[in-house]
């Protein structure tokens, strides 16, 4: 089985250009970059004294927090579905 073709593109996050490589669609990768950029800008608007590295870490922490909450919700729904199927 062949590996999916890697896509390469440049994105801008918080004023910096980054090269992204991935097997997802270019649109998906741009959306992810845009969401990170939005979160960093939101955090910066709340505390303009934070440096870029700190903003990036806080954006990552926020992203993983959201991911874990959603993962827990999915697990609860799957458990409930199994219970209902009996």
Question: Can you describe what's shown?
Answer:
- With 86 residues, this protein is of the alpha+beta class.
- The protein has one domain.
- The protein is built from 2 helices and 2 strands, in the order ββαα.
- The protein has helices at 26-46, 52-85; strands at 7-13, 16-22.
- InterPro entries: Bac_CellDiv_Activator (IPR053712), Cell_div_ZapA-like (IPR007838), Cell_div_ZapA-like_sf (IPR036192).
- Homodimer. Interacts with FtsZ.
Describe the secondary-structure layout.
Elements: E1 7-13, E2 16-22, H1 26-46, H2 52-85
Antiparallel strand pairs: 1-2
Helix pairs in contact: 1-2
GO cellular component, one term: cytosol
GO biological process, one term: septin ring assembly
Protein name: Cell division protein ZapA
Strand order of the largest sheet: 1-2
Radius of gyration: 17 Å
Q: Please count the helical segments.
A: 2
**Shape by Cα distribution:** flat
- Domains, number: 1
Subcellular location: Cytoplasm
InterPro entries: Bac_CellDiv_Activator, Cell_div_ZapA-like, Cell_div_ZapA-like_sf
Protein name: Cell division protein ZapA
Keywords: Cell cycle, Cell division, Cytoplasm, Septation
What is the gist of this entry?
With 86 residues, the chain is of the alpha+beta class.
Question: Which key terms come to mind for this protein?
Answer:
alpha+beta; 16% strand; 2 helices; flat; 86 residues; two-stranded antiparallel sheet
């Amino acid at each position: 089985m062949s590996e999916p073709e890697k896509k390469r593109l440049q994105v801008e996050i918080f004023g910096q250009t980054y090269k992204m490589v991935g097997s997802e669609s270019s649109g998906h990768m741009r959306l992810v970059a845009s969401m990170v950029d939005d979160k960093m800008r939101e955090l910066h608007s709340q505390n303009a004294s934070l440096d870029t590295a700190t903003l990036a870490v806080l954006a990552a922490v926020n992203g993983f927090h959201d991911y874990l909450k959603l993962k827990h919700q999915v697990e609860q729904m799957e458990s409930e579905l199994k219970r209902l199927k009996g």
